[in-house]
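Appendix B, example 12.
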Amino acid sequence: MSTTGVRPQPPGAAGPAPTTASARAPTQTAATPIPAKLGLGLLVALVVGSIVGSGIFGLPQNMAAGAGAGAILIGWVVTGIGMLLLVRVYQMLSMRKPALDNGVYAYARALSGEYVGFNAAWGYWVSAWIGNVGYLVATFGALGYFFPVFGTGNSPAAIAGASLVLWAVHFMVLRGIQGAAVLNAVVTAAKLLPLLLFIVLVAMAFELSTFRIDFWGTPELGSVLDQVKSTMLVTVWVFIGIEGASVYSARAQRRQDVGRATVIGFLICLALLMAVSLLSLGVVSQPVLAGLPNPSMAGVLEKAVGTWGAVLIYVGLIVSVGGGFLAWMLLAAESLFTPAGGGVMPAWLAQTNPRGVPAHALWLTNGMVQLFLLLTLFSKASYLALISLSTAMILLPYLFSAAYGLLLAWRGEGAADARHASDRPVAALATLYCVWLLFAAGSKYLLLSALLYAPGVLLYVWAKRQRHERVFSAWEWALLAALVGFAGLAAVWLATGRLAL
């Protein structure tokens, strides 16, 4: 039995769509069309569209800044294995617990109760809309290459343009999730073209002698271990989005497609990311690459083919970030809608419009994007700072998912035909990897995350009061106290200048 409450009806369905989580969906009849569902191709596009945003365009410089080619290669092996383990956990969970929709929230709730589930959903939602602020800043920063009035993406003109784009996409999504998902698939295909062209052209210009210069890094970069650790800090965030199909599991045509889409999307993105970062080192040496401005792919392709290569990358960045923005807008709204149906967020967030779109969740999401856009105008927060904060917010939801996978595997729970002997070691290693990611994020962003997690309790208390239920258990009170304590410390440090975005 699903924990999400009501599934939205499509346009033209008989009778009005249910508007709250407590409403009961009408029985499907010949006069009531089955709601539109997402097939394997659209789910794969959601995963790829969520992962491939702006990060890949700055990846060559980001990786080379702290590591030589050898360490970067090792870093990709470690990251590839770690993320594949996490992907495997999401695939396993989607098959063992097919009734749990919107996995990031549902898995955390099944692991440790409603308040932990709420925090997973809240953290994922905050990560999504902060990431979208970063996407809009990056888009108009790229437009600044052609139109200087946009500057680096946080000038008054850029914020005004970003606001127009935000609300144009908002009203398009309100017309229907299915149409928006199809458009996302089209945009995803379009943004892959310049990336593939980059890989082909750079591969043709690749020189092994350049790639082998200071292969294990210069003395200034430190030991190979230090260099590998520096690559981890970059790859923490370039794979965010691997859970995209899991978040939309309630809308999948076939449950098995969720796991398949996650694996396929991950492998596509891993191949792209590795190719972009490693091939670039065969065109531009590590010290030079480390000094390139971002998007560093533009500088690499300009070196390989001339000025038109840089123009291609800037255009590709604009298209790519636009697609990532759309994908994350969809995911953000869904990450509020499902928990509201489960009773851990206010019921009004589970309301849908006649086209089956979680409209209230969408309005709240994009209202927060607009607010933070205005804040960037005054704080001048950079894209990298925004995306790092977005990453830190999503690490706990990842850890909860991996830990729940380990719990199921250890107990032997879930659908019998979905159990495999490898599930236990895979889930254990994925959990350790998620703990490592928390360590790699550093205390700064973990404290800032606490500051953003803490206010969510107001929505949680609201939801529980609506249902006349006890708000916290004893251990949840302890969890809340710890969270508020860390948030208070972050607030004090921000006020005294010891902490800054």
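The CA atoms of residues 95 and 418 lie 6 Å apart. DSSP finds 19 helices and no strands in the chain.
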